[in-house]
Design a protein that fits this description.
The structure is a single chain. The chain is α+β, with helices and mostly antiparallel strands and about 170 residues long. The protein contains 6 helices and 7 strands; from the N terminus they run E-H-H-H-E-E-E-H-E-H-E-E-H. A hairpin with a 2-residue loop joins strand 2 and strand 3. Helix 1 crosses helix 3 and helix 4 crosses helix 5.
Amino acid sequence: MKKNSFQLRSWQLSDVPSLARHLNNRKIWDNCRDRLPFPYTEEDAHSFINYAISQQEPSEYCIDINGEAVGNISFMRGTDVERFNAEVGYWLAEPFWNQGIASQALHEALHHYCAATGVVRIFANVYENNTASMRVLEKSGFLKVGIFHKSCFKNGCFVDAHYFELLKEDFL
């Protein structure tokens, strides 16, 4: 296996220590929703992995590098009239930033998720200062469709959220 090549796979309970170690990072938490605990503990990791394993449709993709869980791509399906939409979120351990891994992993996860579900539209919100994540989305075919001004309250401040979308018909 070449250095830092990745594979997407399902989460396993044996990933608890790696997940807790890599996700307990303030720089990652600063770009995620507040429902993500910080500090992130092995108990939090265990709860998440149990949740991921219990899902009926594929929605949580572990990013594995050299046999270690180092990231996640998550699809959160809409409900009611938005049931054919999904919000995507992702994170990658800091040692693997700026290597193109997140873009490649997201692209692969999108192919799998779109083929396995009836979702026709995937969207993402990115905080204004997270230009690297915006680039990940653009490299995967997402289009920025707007900026929601002061739409999120993170770390004691209102921040703009950049809104991206991808239509299945334009992706596959």
